[in-house]
Design brief:
With about 150 residues, the chain is of the alpha+beta class. About 45% of the residues lie in helices and about 30% in strands. The chain has 4 helices and 5 strands; from the N terminus they run ααββββαβα. It has a 5-stranded antiparallel sheet with strand order 4-3-2-1-5. The longest helix has about 30 residues.
């Protein structure tokens, strides 16, 4: 009788351990799939001509549409969104410090047949796959803005 109780207890314990292990594995798997949509890819690159175009377009737009007047940039990154037909739409995302109210605001510059620029938080940057996230992009944008 003692052997039977011990055997059943051992089976129950093994079942419990196996169940907990499976739940933990599935939990980690779900956490991995919920990675932020602004995933950084180090294996891809964006042509320099696109990077220069977006930096120049963002700079021109900031100069031509003031206020707000940007005095600094941070967290500038570049990436793309894939359309349903798998074409890439490139975009530049970041934040700028407004001279008027001294607060950081988000911006998005999108390469279209020309370009579009949005001030404020957009879904575009949240849905994009970021390729280049480098402090140099913030510096490059600031430099381009002060050149003009």
């Amino acid at each position: 009788m003692t052997k039977l109780i011990f055997k059943n207890t051992l089976k129950a314990y093994a079942f419990l351990v196996l169940t907990v292990a499976m739940i933990c594995c599935n939990f980690n798997k779900k956490a991995d799939t919920k990675v932020n949509s602004t995933t950084i890819s180090e294996n891809e690159s964006i042509p320099d001509s696109v990077v220069k175009f977006l930096i120049s377009s963002a700079s021109n737009d900031f100069l031509n549409h003031q206020p707000p007047t940007p005095i600094d940039f941070r967290n500038v990154k570049i990436g793309y969104i894939k359309s349903p037909n798998s074409e890439k739409t490139f975009l530049l995302c970041g934040e700028f410090l407004s001279q008027e109210n001294k607060e950081w605001k988000e911006f998005t510059t999108i390469k279209t047949s020309g370009y579009e620029q949005y001030i404020g938080k957009t879904q575009y940057c949240q849905e994009a796959k970021m390729v280049l996230t480098d402090e140099n992009l913030s510096l490059e944008l600031k430099k381009k803005l002060t050149e003009k």
